[in-house]
Amino acid sequence: MIVRKLQDIRKSDMNVKSDQWESARLLLKDDDMGFSFHVTTMYAGEEIRMHYQNHQEAVLILKGTGTLEDLGSGITHPLKAGVMYALNDHDRHVVRPETDILCACVFNPPVTGREVHDENGAYPVEADLIRVDATVT
Amino acid sequence: MIVRKLQDIRKSDMNVKSDQWESARLLLKDDDMGFSFHVTTMYAGEEIRMHYQNHQEAVLILKGTGTLEDLGSGITHPLKAGVMYALNDHDRHVVRPETDILCACVFNPPVTGREVHDENGAYPVEADLIRVDATVT
């Protein structure tokens, strides 16, 4: 059994920050759960463009408001506590937080904790240490 | 992209109740994400004994307080918002909610939504329709 506290993770190297978001990784690939589990804050006023070419991700909004634009369908969804979205088809998307948005995120395959979004807004698979201060573009 | 609202799931057959807990399944096996994602309420005053022989599970406490007893080690952990526990080794455990506990749960492999805890407190793998009103024992 693994027991971890978010407040401890936030002070550790399992907490990763960029200019647009920060993410506390509660579980990573090395934990051998078959997924990784993160608590992420997306910062108010940012426009965060993402495209996970190598991962599926589910996001549950816990706090805050904003919008999610699905670039494939062109549909924009409102985000608030209790909304869940799943990128089941490597969907290109943009999140525009109106306030800071706190969310719980699950990735399959699990991220290692060492990758950051690359120039396409994707996480590479099995990336080694890149930069932890990269901006999602 | 899949977008679902917790309030809608709670009114649907993706919301499963027992005497000791209820669970809104935001994502299930058929969603092909490789995991299932639930928002679960464990009721105050219950003693919920569980042993997932066929699944790994991660639980993030969102609200409420209680304790988690790891029957393997004999250690009891306090539960409150921000505590995460992961059953990485099919750990036998007991949760004793002092208040209602709201949590976000991830299962690997994903549950189908039709199984309930069996007499051992486990979810069978690929169970067909059993009873949705069973009590975890």
How does the SSE layout of this entry go?
The structure is a homodimer of 137-residue chains.
Chain A: E1 2-5, H1 6-10, E2 15-17, E3 21-27, E4 36-42, E5 48-50, E6 56-63, E7 66-70, E8 76-79, E9 83-87, E10 93-97, E11 101-108
Antiparallel strand pairs in A: 2-3, 3-4, 4-11, 5-10, 6-9, 6-11, 7-8, 7-10
Order of SSEs of chain A, N→C? EHEEEEEEEEEE
What's the CATH superfamily of chain A, by name?
Answer: Jelly Rolls
CATH topology heading of chain A: Jelly Rolls
Count of β-strands of chain A:
11
* Largest sheet, spatial ordering of strands of chain A: 2-3-4-11-6-9
Number of discrete helical segments of chain A: 1
In oligomeric terms, what are we looking at?
A: homodimer
Count of structural domains of chain A:
1
As a whole number of angstroms, the C-alpha radius of gyration of chain A is 14 Å
CATH class of chain A: Mainly Beta
What's the mean pLDDT score of chain A? 87
Largest interface in this structure: A-B, 38 and 38 residues
The major sheet of chain A is characterized as: 6 strands, antiparallel
Low-confidence blocks of residues of chain A: 126-137
**Could you tell me the strand content of chain A as a percent range?**
35-45%
Residues in helix, % of chain A: under 10%
Catalytic activity (chains A, B): (2S)-4-acetamido-2-aminobutanoate = L-ectoine + H2O
GO biological process, one term (chains A, B): ectoine biosynthetic process
Keywords (chains A, B): Lyase
Family (chains A, B): Belongs to the ectoine synthase family.
